[in-house]
Amino acid sequence: MDRMRPNTANSTPLTPLGFLERTATVYGDRPSVVYRRTVFTWSQTRRRCLRLASSLSFLGISRGDVVSVLAPNVPAMYEMQFGVPMSGAVLNNINLRLDARTISVLLHHSGSKLVFVDHLSLPLLRDALHLLPQSHRAPRIIPIEDPYEEEAKSSDHSSAAAAGLTYEKLIEMGDPEFDWVRPKSEWEPMVLNYTSGTTSAPKGVVHCHRGLFIITVDSLIDWSVPKCPVYLWTLPIFHANGWSFPWGIAAVGGTNICLRRFDAAAIYASIAAHHVTHMCGAPVVLNMLANAPDSARKPLPGPVQILTAGAPPPAAVLHRSEALGFSVSHGYGLTETAGLVVSCAWKGQWDRLPAAERARLKARQGVRTLGMASIDVINGATGESVKRDGATMGEIVLRGGSVMLGYLKDEEATSRAVQPDGWFYTGDVGVMHADGYLEIKDRSKDVIISGGENLSSVEVESVLYGHPAVNEAAVVARPDDYWGETPCAFISIKEGLAAPPAEVEVIAWCRESMPHYMVPKTVVFKPELPKTSTGKIQKYLLREEAKAMGSLRRSKM
Predict the structure, then answer these.
(1) What is the pLDDT of residues 524-534, one digit of tens each?
(2) Which terminus of the chain has fewer Cβ atoms in its 10 Å neighbourhood, N or C?
(3) 155 pLDDT band (50/70/90 cuts)?
(4) How many structural domains comprise the chain?
(5) Best CA proximity match to 365, nearest among 323, 396, 337
(6) Confidence at residue 197, expressed as pLDDT on a 0 to 100 scale
(7) Are 231 and 276 in contact (CB under 8 A)?
(8) Distance CA 60, CA 113 (A)
């Protein structure tokens, strides 16, 4: 037995890209992607992805090159999750909610060779390109058409499409029998996702083929996704590759219902029209469905499974959602884990508990998924596990196959996160309950989760400090009924000002200086911010004050 070794037959690199070929064979005639009146089958989707990979290779994109995409949940965005890495390139999905300055930082940091951009985001991308350093070679731009958008048919957009290659032209010129570029090693990078990306030193998370294969299969098993589900894309694909479900829904021969934009009425209408069975989203989506007016609601044609993460869903929202017929599952993951690696695995006996108690249990993050080797909550000072009493707090640490390769061009940050003891340090604070279920109690001091998006309080503070009237600034999370959390800014004003700014003026100024989802929803003026003896602002006191204000109701970004 000791002579047994890996061999060429059992050492083919793992990659989720191979799911597409099997699915085209088994489910070739079934619908793969539906967008308004456009319907593709799995055979067509496979050919389109191969054509895309072929055309990228023809354009000179080679193994390891970064190709970016700035697009909503349209068919092209789905296809690129396969087609771009099938060319050997590393796929970089960019958050549509970012501003031009941030996008320019990401393009520069990643060294992107080519950017696919939705027609409606062309002006944003052009602004970003103008902000690139003169020494940086600008990436090639390929517009993505949308025949259903009137604005995309305007003369400006039409002239851009006529002037050169577009996404559909690339598809037409590609080879549907292209021998796609398989990874030489399953550890080869496949995607690059940015965790925040609004500073001059963004954190680019690199994931390999192996890790994405593991998280995809793991997520299907943990959520008990059956064959041929109908999946509604309410989760942005640019958000950690849609938690791995572009590849997962392909693996089980499902149907992807694409939505460019949505509200409660659009979600209910899509569920009714397509008999949707599965969807993902941050708790803000649950809140949207639960609080929708009667005019927007339609009866559910059957049970709809919702997987939520990003922040603990409020118990009241969980109760209202399930009363409408939705079955909610809750999990926890990070960009660095490529998807959800902790889930609140439900126990049958909990069904007999009162609704409030069921919601409280379901709001916990839960236990490790099968693909995670282990999780723990440890005392940072001793490195030992905290007591399983649901009260003793520590840092959440993870170990498993879908943990990132590291942060691009940032060895220092990588070494802080992945330490020699074999743990990935999340920076999140939690407790472990006696039954082995994990629950997050706090976030690392710089992170606020708003609508499922992570944003850094330090970055918001840096913008506030640029306001001519601001002396000191500290930003913490305030509970929000709609978004889960929103930024709350505490500021002190410089002395000698004839007329200090009002709250609305500071908020308006922030909206001109940062992405709108990062803008504080509350501004509190103080003569002086609380500090330690060494001059550090005591954020924990401000967090308590923000919490005591109560939850903002129905705020919008």
Answers:
(1) 999 888 875 44
(2) N
(3) very low
(4) 3
(5) 396
(6) 42
(7) yes
(8) 10
Whether 370 contacts 222, CB under 8 Å: yes
pLDDT at residue 157 greater than cutoff 60: no
Are 418 and 480 contained in the same domain?
A: no
Domain membership of residue 425 as a residue range:
308-442
Q: What residue spans of 253-292 are helical by DSSP H?
A: 264-274, 283-290
Number of Cβ atoms within 10 Å of the Cβ of 399: 17
pLDDT band at 59; cut points 50, 70, 90: very high
Assigned domain for 201 exists: yes
Whether 463 is covered by a domain: the verdict is yes
Exposed / middle / buried, residue 301 (Cβ in 10 Å: 0-12, 13-18, 19+): middle
Instruction: Tell me the CB-side half-sphere exposure of residue 535, using CA atoms within 13 A.
Output: 1
DSSP string, 352-403: GS-HHHHHHHHTS-BEE-TTEEEEEEE-TTT-PBPPSSS---EEEEEEETTS
Residue 441: pLDDT above 90?
no
- Give the CATH number for residue 465: 3.30.300.30
Q: Do the domain assignments include residue 392?
A: yes
Q: Is 179 helix (H, G, I), strand (E, B) or coil?
A: coil
- In the block, tokens 């099968």 appear at 370
CB 54 within 8 A of CB 175: yes
Shared-domain flag, residues 93 and 227: yes
Q: Whole-angstrom Cα distance, residue 109 to residue 103?
A: 10
Looking at the fold, whether 154 and 219 belong to one and the same domain comes out as: yes
Q: Are 76 and 287 in contact (CB under 8 A)?
A: no
70 and 127 fall within a common domain: yes
Q: What angle do CA 173, 175, 181 make, to 5 degrees?
A: 120
Please give the average per-residue pLDDT across 44-58, as a whole number: 98
pLDDT at 489 over 90: yes
**Are 85 and 180 in a shared domain?**
yes
Domain boundary among 442, 468, 489: 442
Residue 535's pLDDT band, with cuts at 50, 70 and 90, is low
Cα distance between residue 22 and residue 305, in whole Å:
25
**Is residue 184 a part of any domain in this protein?**
yes
**What is the rounded average pLDDT for all residues in the chain?**
90
In the beta sheet, which residues pair with residue 450?
453
Ramachandran angles phi, psi of 161, nearest 5°: -70, -40
Q: Are residues 484 and 428 in the same domain?
A: no
User: Do you know the residue count of the chain?
Assistant: 557
What is the model's pLDDT at position 374? 96
Residues 414 and 465 in one domain: no
- Which pLDDT score is estimated for 534? 43
**519 to 127, 288, 511: CA distances (angstroms):** 21, 21, 6
Does residue 33 sit in the same domain as residue 175?
yes
Q: Rounded to whole angstroms, how far apart are CA atoms 90 and 67?
A: 6
Last residue of a domain, one of 395, 422, 442: 442
